[in-house]
Amino acid sequence: MRKSPNVRRSRRVIPALSILSFLALFLAACGGGGSTSDSAGSATSANITWWGWTPSTQVAQQYIKAFNQKYPNIHVTYKMLTIAGYNAALRPALASSVGPDVFDVAPGAANGSVETYSPDAVNLAPAVEKSLGSDWQSRLSPIGVSSLMIGQKLAAIQGQVPWTSPVIVKALTIWKQMFSDGIMEKGALGVQQYPDANNDFMSGKYAMVMMGTWYMQYDTTSGMSAAISAAGVASPKNFTALPIAFPDVAGTGHTGALYGDSDYGLAVNAKSSHQAAATTFAVWLGTSTAGQEQVANALDDIAALRGIEPNWSNISLVNSGSQQSALSKLITNAVTSAEPRLATVSPNLQTAIGNATTTVASGSATPEQAAATLQAAAAKMPNHGAV
Predict the structure, then answer these.
(1) Which residue among 2, 126, 150, 187 is least crowded, i.e. fewest CB within 10 A of its CB?
(2) pLDDT tens readout for residues 54-101
């Protein structure tokens, strides 16, 4: 589903509260940045702003409403930005004295990278430890913690196996077969996941669509009707959508293996004049039982705090008889995943992999040629010369 070889690089945890992942995790992180001080304003009363490209405004308002039941004097204003425009808006805002009090960050080379913005964030380790105890990492799902640790690289990207390995060539061969056999429709390389594939699925043009666990939100009656309307259907009619495991295309007996990262982390702006209140909000949403229950019940993501699951009696599914058991199984499997998606991939490596897979899919390069090109490109990048 959503981040060296023999000698591991030291890991530095970023100053953010990590929240969702491809598996959708809410987590806590620390490190870098300054600490919240006594001069950072009241911890229980302030007007603060939160900028992010996710969650949706509707889901964010659910979180804020629940937060205000405990902290009625902290008023949170959420500003949702586009993924494409997020960095362009956030960079100058953080450089000024009027930037957001809380802002989203993402693992690896993704939008709003933690490596880019960690110097602008407050060290939340003390606040997280106060909330969960000294063993806070053990109380959270592991993938979310690790995916927001700067400098961590998987063994597969640490020189143990060259990119020209038969395993990689086979993977590229299977990828090509999906296009040759018509599993991927003609012209698929020119289709965007959003809005194209998403809207076509929601409007009934596709029977299946490849997405992550965040798509669970469309199994709810309100979530699906809103999504179908957004896809341009005049009179939306909800249908039963189910998560299914990806088939065993490699013939190894393994199906539906899950991997992912924290979808985003909540960071507190080091220049904020309301650091204390901003920290209260971030820590409540990322570590408290009440906050994590809101995350779980929204089905937009999976709560990272161990032991928190959706309260199905409070969730209106399109078809609970079919969907609840399937979603419960998905959530149970997701929180145990230890395989990152983007956290260990640099921007250059991500581009190189994208180029290699595109040339194979389009037929302009064989799997062997693409693997050789990828090996040559990766060899020029520190710690990426092999997988």
Answers:
(1) 187
(2) 998 989 999 999 999 999 999 999 999 988 899 999 999 999 989 999
Q: Which residue, chain included where needed, has tokens 């982390």?
A: 265
**Helix 275-287 and helix 289-298, axial crossing angle in degrees, nearest 10:** 60
Query: For residue 143, which of 265, 310, 244 has the smallest C-alpha distance?
Result: 265
CA distances from 58 to 26, 166, 373 (A): 18, 47, 44
Question: With a cut of 50, which residues of the chain have pLDDT below it?
Answer: 1-32, 151-153, 155-156
Q: Tell me what pLDDT residue 32 has.
A: 47
Closest CA to 102 of 46, 22, 31, 24: 46
Q: For residue 9, what pLDDT is reported?
A: 29
Q: Is the dihedral of CA 158, 137, 32, 303 positive or negative?
A: positive
**Of all residues in the chain, what percent are helix, strand and coil, respectively (each to 5)?**
45, 10, 45
Q: Which residues lie closer than 8 Å to 110 by C-beta, 6 or more apart?
A: 261, 342
In whole angstroms, how large is the CA radius of gyration of the chain? 21
- The answer to whether the CB of 99 falls within 8 A of the CB of 269 is yes
291 touches 42 (CB < 8 A)? no
Q: What is the pLDDT, as a whole number, of residue 353?
A: 92
Give the number of other CB atoms < 10 A from CB of residue 358: 13
Signed CA dihedral, 24, 28, 31, 33: sign only: positive
Q: Output b/e per residue, 249-288; b: 16+ Cβ within 10 A.
A: eeeeeeeeebbbbbbbbbbbbbbbbbbbbbbbbbbbbbbb
Beta-bridged to residue 105, according to DSSP, are 265
What pLDDT is recorded for position 262? 79
* Six-digit token string for 66: 């629940």
What would the two tokens of residue 19 be? Answer: 């929240």
Q: Please tell me whether residue 135 adopts helix, strand or coil conformation.
A: coil
Residues 6+ apart with CB under 8 A from 9: 151, 152, 153, 383
Under 8 Å CB-to-CB from 237, ≥6 apart: which residues?
A: 228
Both tokens of residue 47? Answer: 């007007």
Please, what is the angle between helix 166-180 and helix 367-379, to 10°? 130
